[in-house]
Amino acid sequence: AASRNDVRPRSSTLHLTPPTSHTDTLSLFSPSFRLFPSHQRNLSFPHPAPSGNGPQPAPSTMSLSSDLWPPVSPEELEINKAETLKRELVWITEETIKACRQLKHGLDDCYALIAPIDPGSTLVMSTPRNEKVKGTMTRVGSRLVKGSLNLQLRTTPAISVALSPSSPIHVHALDDLHTHLSQSIDLLSLTLARDPPHDPPSVASTLALISDSLAESMALLKGPPLNLPDASWQTSSCPPHHFSPPLPANLSFHVGLQDSCIVLVLRTLEPVDAPVHLGTKLGLAIGTVRRIEHDEMDLVFRYSPSGDGSAEPKRGSSRRSFDPATGGRGAQDVYVREKVRVESADPSLISLQSKLGYLNNMLCQTRRNLATVMAVADVDC
User: Fold this and answer.
1) Does the pLDDT at position 103 exceed 80?
2) Does residue 340 sit within a domain?
3) In this structure, is residue 351 part of a structural domain?
4) Residue 160: inside a domain, yes or no?
5) Residues 22-32, buried b or exposed e (16+ Cβ, 10 A)?
6) Number of domains in the chain
């Protein structure tokens, strides 16, 4: 007979099948895991294999239902859904306000790049590979305050041009850029000064206005397309009183922006009804006199020497009025005999364009995020 110590009772301990992944471990043993009632679950656990040659147990299986438990009525589900969307809208609005603070900080940096702070930026204005134009100009804010240029054009005698200290030249594109940045900063200041909670539709409309302003600012720095003719010089050339001594009447001095560069275009003009010298006719006929070829040759332009006031300082909210029907005072039809274009890269404007591009991308992403949540929450922009 076997002794009592040799009798070993059969183990009744249950063994769970180990999870196959880390996700299964979390789902089985996390505090939020709840087993469904017996009629909604089918769990079986493997028992230890009996000794001997008895029947083997069936393999373990586990299936869970995706139904909510305890069950929630459709009315309660809609209430919970509305509360969740409301919390999401409050959260995205707070995140948008945080982005607005970053945007304002970036626009303040952009404004400082074109602020009228001395000593400004000194720009080299010289033609490459020749000395038709040679000199420098100084930009402070949106104004060209001083400069001197030596001109050696083929159709005019060599002259030296100096900007008058008492009458600086205002670059029209930089004035408009300054206005757009100021308006954007003011709108952001008003939005951030409001006490929470913020109204999502109001924030969305403010961001839309700022987005339009930034797009126009970037377009001003980009300038007009090079493949299209620019007729602004006919009315916005700098009047002679900006220079000391005054410019000759047949010389057009036009300043603009192109790809964050200050662009100077000089044109020597000739009235349409001006008589042609007999020697010039003979030289053109036999080939001893060659015409200067450019993209504006043989075209008639309506030129206003007095300008439209875009180079003048602002008085109030507008500059001097200009009547396009009459073409300004003393307008006349002219030919362009010679045209010289000079570009000077401005480091401050290049940095400004880069910053505005980044801020515009950030603003577009912020607007999309806010609009998406507002659309899901059925809130009109």
Assistant:
1) yes
2) yes
3) yes
4) yes
5) eeeeeeeeeee
6) 1
